[in-house]
Amino acid sequence: MEQTYVMEYKAPSEVKDINVVNTYELEMMAGDIIPHGGFDYISGGSGDEYTLKQNVDCFNHKGILPRVLANVENPETETSILGHNIKAPFIMAPIAAHGLAHQSKEAGTARGVSEFGTIMSISAYSGAKFEEIEKGLNGSPRWFQLYMSKDDEINKMIVDEAKADGATAIILTADATIAGNREKDIRNKFVYPFGMPIVSRYLTGAGEKMSLNNIYAQSKQKISPRDVEFLSDYSDLPIFVKGIQSAEDALLAIGAGAAGIWVSNHGGRQLDGAPGSFETLEDISKAVQGRVPIVFDSGIRRGEHIFKALASGADVVAIGRPALYGLAIGGYKGVKSVFNYFEKDLKRVMQLAGTQTVEDIKQTKLYDK
User: Is 266 a catalytic residue?
Assistant: First the structure.
């Protein structure tokens, strides 16, 4: 393991508003300032990166029919989920190690998300402590994403801390029991340049100077419906099961007590050759039949993508990489700029599609190309 690389890692630190024309350009801009190993970790996928690319490309398989004479002006993006009123139908996805993108780490992301007016998802693999993230959130809503320990007593302690911090839901990530074949990380000999304080109690070395393979090896590999039941019973919080890519797994999760389904393929970072996340959403939504809310992520880059996901059964979507690119370029102000871009872009699409509200989007029928 190359410790010289770890010692030299220096994330960007600038804080500024950014002009977002599109999020694809943000990726290129962030690639110029994030250290190489960290950028490859954030932007890369597994294997041939087929699924990574398909996450974005598959949105083009469905179209939005323009509507006129729809009596629409100033579309309204406000919505609610699990009792939280949010400014727009998107939240921050749980992502590990924001400190790879910016020196403010998760606290910077949290401030940008809070100032915009939506929900922050805090990863168990955060490089910041709950207290540091709270300084950015300043009381705003947050959900906690859990990579389970093999020891349920440790899981209880972590859940207790998340609840004490104010988490109103637990996100169980079920699709990452081992690391995907992330060849860029292997080639770069990538290791985390800082620790992971939330899960440090079950990680040898607290996560610092460890590869993702080593970290996942110390987490729980066998995830079953029993884990959903355990978390639901112990936490007394709504449980989202994240990583659902089939109707069968959605029904298993609901049967085990899940209060929400999170449709995701981990941003194309796990099983390469799997379908784009959007390709699985409609079938899962039909199986769920509105019994629990659905969160969708993987591949959201434009307002059209948000619209199509909502029209295909999602209640909200989660923004991942674009927010981290905004963080790298402009700190918390960059994160807020990215969320403002998505809000503006979604409103444009809503106006042209003749939809006044988020509920109108959900009633929209897309057409097959």
Answer: yes
